[in-house]
Amino acid sequence: xxxxxxxxxxxxxxxxxxxxxxxxxxxxxxxxxxxxxxxxxxxxxxxxxxxxxxxxxxxxxxxxxxxxxxxxxxxxxxxxxxxxxxxxxxxxxxxxxxxxxxxxxxxxxxxxxxxxxxxxxxxxxxxxxxxxxxxxxxxxxxxxxxxxxxxxxxxxxxxxxxxxxxxxxxxxxxxxxxxxxxxxxxxxxxxxxxxxxxxxxxxxxxxxxxxxxxxxxxxxxxxxxxxxxxxxxxxxxxxxxxxxxxxxxxxxxxxxxxxxxxxxxxxxxxxxxxxxxxxxxxxxxxxxxxxxxxxxxxxxxxxxxxxxxxxxxxxxxxxxxxxxxxxxxxxxxxxxxxxxxxxxxxxxxxxxxxxxxxxxxxxxxxxxxxxxxxxxxxxxxxxxxxxxxxxxxxxxxxxxxxxxxxxxxxxxxxxxxxxxxxxxxxxxxxxxxxxxxxxxxxxxxxxxxxxxxxxxxxxxxxxxxxxxxxxxxxxxxxxxxxxxxxxxxxxxxxxxxxxxxxxxxxxxxxxxxxxxxxxxxxxxxxxxxxxxxxxxxxxxxxxxxxxxxxxxxxxxxxxxxxxxxxxxxxxxxxxxxxxxxxxxxxxxxxxxxxxxxxxxxxxxxxxxxxxxxxxxxxxx
Length: 620
What we know:
The chain is of the alpha+beta class.
């Protein structure tokens, strides 16, 4: 780490350019700030790219090749800024070390950090707010670690900044407190001059670290770190290892991280149809070793100190969406849009403009939360989410309150069904089956189910009471016109999502484009639903979509005055309501289960579910 970078003519030239960018950016910022006008604000704003170039060595939104070529080591010691700070905490050493070692905890008290994402190979991705408010990103790796003693890291080539550092932990006062010593080495692309100019427009590094440690000390006084519970430290879990690669692995037990958390011993979990989007490689920001699963329930075995709603021994169903219960959206009953539950909101914001709530087991873009296809699971905001269930109902009767029953119900409710309505449902998988059931519960006179698998169509008919269409045997649009007197269904539900199949030209077009990575989704079913729906009707979309849709018939929806309603389910709103329906005997959700397996058999069941090799509708 102390080696000097290799200097050559390219390096000298690059440094000169960085000096020039820093000086020019600083001048523009000072001139702009001195003029209290719109022109001055514009001039000041124009300094941001120059400051970014001067400090990081490349322009915003580029890949940092300049740094990769000119900096061959982890840190240029001659040009770096060294910061050393220490603090004593009245917390036992093992608890402090455990908290720091989980790098995703650091943004809780490091104000300059926007997010840290860990991967299973010891590497991590960091995002900080740099000079002039610009995001600075880098990848790092742990290069040395001694449990309860030392964590040392360095940035990887290609990062916006070159940084390395270490944190030493020493027991003090007979083990009742801990001495924490931080050594940070930071090398701006223009050396110490870059750090000096950066400090003109923000805090210099040593001040920042001191304030971070003070915040950490305050946090430790307000809420003690939780002691590890006395049970085994590892468990078995279903993990994603790549496209179409699922393994059951031994992973660390979850621990309480927040006073509102709970730890649940999972008694039953399920593979959801949307898990297949992960299995098939359509969901971005997955990392090897991620624990899957967002439909689970079990027994509470530990609660955080601020969680007064749950007790050890409670039997609960956990909603797949994670919500804080306190933000604007939660208060408006828009639970799946929670503002506070996704620690990686910046990822979703880059793709979608805004971030929705965090989700269990569904990529780092949705929070990176380990899922429930495991022996234990940590449940954040557990004083808001988990629903206690009575002992008079079996696990299989209530499990699907965790996702697909509320999802199908909200899909039907979004249709604004009136007595006498006809509803068409594309996709007779689990969500489609519950959408059929829910449409009748809400007053539909007729439901028409559309799929290609005979077993699913038979289930929709025998259990759901739906009329059925096999899209491989009929022209769906013509059949729906005929069945509705030429008018079309009053409402249409797309319970298929981004991996739709079909026999028409547009379906083959979708498959060709996604195969060549020229499109993100296959929206054939959605196109068909929009085309089939009657004028003034509603198209409800519970099926998951992940990107930008090609050949989307917005003109058709506009011409017919359709209402489109969609989004992740507001779970917390529907779970108590639907539990009451189950208790009254209006519906038994366990009808959807076709396979019952152990955790170790999950990889094979993923393959079965994905390829429809047997009549797999639901696995638990």
